[in-house]
Structures
1.
Amino acid sequence: MPKPSSVTVLGLGPMGRALAGAFLDAGLRTTVWNRTPGRDLDLKERGAISAASAADAVAASPLTVVCVVNYDAADTFLRTEPVTDALKGRTVVNFSSDSPDRARRAADWAAEHGIRYLDGAIMTPITTIGTPHAVFLHSGPEDLYAEHRPALDALGGTHTHLGADSGRAAAYDIALLDIFWTATAGYVHALALARAEGITARELAPFAQGIGAILPPLFAEWADDIDEGTYSGEGNPLTSSVSSMAHIVHTAEAHGIDSAVLRAAEGQARRAVGLGHGTDGITRLTELLGRR
Ligand code: NDP
């Protein structure tokens, strides 16, 4: 593969700036543009070229990386005539987060306009970009991914191509963020409950980390259990889980703490018990949640 020489970054929020910075550090000629001017001052000092318009930025490089808040935001500049025209025959890698459906529609739009399109998702915070700790997911045409892999490698970390379906990276992203936000909702609820019981966040944190550490081995163990449809409740049947959840709801609500999130989870588990799955594990819900 020839060494990539230039790249354009559209979108200079915290993540777009981190991506552009990594490209600069790797020695690529980096052209940048952002809707609101002035976000590129540090990057310019580091050698970035500031384009006057998105179309000018796109015209500067064979590869354009897009990183804005969502696809509606990306469409405000990508789907303008000068930018669409400038992108013809060039490649877009869209790292903006959104739904799998939006990613597939973006790929269809790109194909209709002769634009080569890869979708991507960034699974780690800005501090990891350019380091071995960054994690990137990609989907779309494999040959296009292979062609631009050397430039993407400038961003550091690991890159995984998940297949030709353009929505697949976003599907992984959404599923993984589901874990993150549901866990975060659980943790802030736990902190509210702890506070009501006179326990500070600092006091709880070391033990919370211990609870968090239980999860990764369970993810691996449950993968086989779910894919094989066994939903084993050995060691922790749903009848026991609902009882544990009820204690938390009871204690939190006695302190006047809103427990709607855990109540919903308890309700789902109780429904599974009611359907005769009390001896199964909580993994049974993966099959029941989508069933009316
Ligand atoms: P934001 O998600 O806040 O995105 C900011 C960028 O979006 C800016 O360039 C902003 O432009 C642009 N933008 C917002 N609305 C519009 C609009 N209507 N039209 C044009 N541009 C718009 O910050 P991040 O940079 O952190 O995130 C970018 C993407 O990266 C998001 O999809 C995010 O989910 C993803 N990501 C971020 C991570 C992080 O740690 N920050 C981690 C993993 C993924 P302006 O400056 O003009 O407002």
2.
Amino acid sequence: MTIKKQSKGTLEVICGSMFSGKSEELIRQLKRSKIAQKETIAFKHSLDNRAAIEYVVSHNDNRIPAFPIQDPQEILQLLTPDIKVIGIDEAQFFSHELIDVVLELVENGKHVIIAGLNLDFRAVPFGPMPTLMALADNVTKLSAVCIVCGDEAYFSQRLVNGKPAKYNDPLIKVGAQESYQARCRDCYSIDKKSVWQSSL
Ligand code: ZN
């Protein structure tokens, strides 16, 4: 019998549309790790101020403490050797530098759990998410419920003043009432099809 060497870590990605329960699933995984006596730490992109800045908060108001950061290097700086499980929420907002940081963590035996939107409101792959999904050991793709017809929803519909946003609408429209809905492929509406090469 051989002695098991120090093994490498694993990368898990939880993705889906808005309202699909990504943060809820990330919180569940991190709580399970804690029960298993594994030291955990959570981060979230500091753009997200939908609720308390120092927590990952799900739409069900389940929450877990998290460090709000913008630069992926801060993950390495805040890490201590005893931490085994690292959760990162709203990963779509980070630069592609996140990919190298995550791979370094996995190489060093950490279990990294990423949660984020795989598509933006234009249905274009979002930031570092498609690459992280390709590199992951395991991908969980969650669906929401289409607000129009009740089918499985994989798209995030952006509405500006109650109407579907246009593909080239600026991300912040001054004076506009903006909201998002989960919708299925049939009910999702955009004035132009996404050309996926443009996102690279
Ligand atoms: Zn629908």
